Amino acid sequence: MASETAAEEASATGPGDAVTESRSQMLRQLVRYTVIGGSGVALDMVVFLLLHNWAGMNEQIANVLSTTLAITNNFILNALFTFERRDRLVVRFLRFYAVGLTGIVLTDLLFLVFTDALGIDANYVKAGSLPLVLALQFVLNRKWSFA
């Protein structure tokens, strides 16, 4: 009975409405994902600076800890507010963390090409990499981590 009602509602709204709703939902998710990602970047930087500059921790160890904290923060917020998924949290977290690592690898590759090989300032490369990394991670997380 419930499936008949859902089917009737879907046919009454038409296929164009479903596409519009899907695009609208994806845009809302992208905005939330971007805001949450921004909070993760800020958290990552603050924790890194505290661990490395204030506590004197090795930069590689400080980076792993700060990045892991930011990825964990972003996963929790995205699970609650962006994709609204609370099932299979361990599997989803492991996938989300793997996607987070792809962003680190992509940024490092861009550093190798643009900073090391071409001499472009690392700050510009980091800033320029953010939209590319954001787009890649959004698609991967939407299709794989929170599917």
From TrEMBL:
In the bilayer, the protein is annotated as: Multi-pass membrane protein
**Transmembrane region(s):** 30-55, 61-81, 93-114
Keyword tags: Membrane, Transmembrane, Transmembrane helix
> Does the keyword field hold Transmembrane helix?
yes
Q: Where is the composition biased (Low complexity)?
A: 1-13
The Swiss-Prot or TrEMBL record describes its family as follows: Belongs to the GtrA family.
- State the protein's name: GtrA/DPMS transmembrane domain-containing protein
- Species of origin reads Streptomyces lannensis
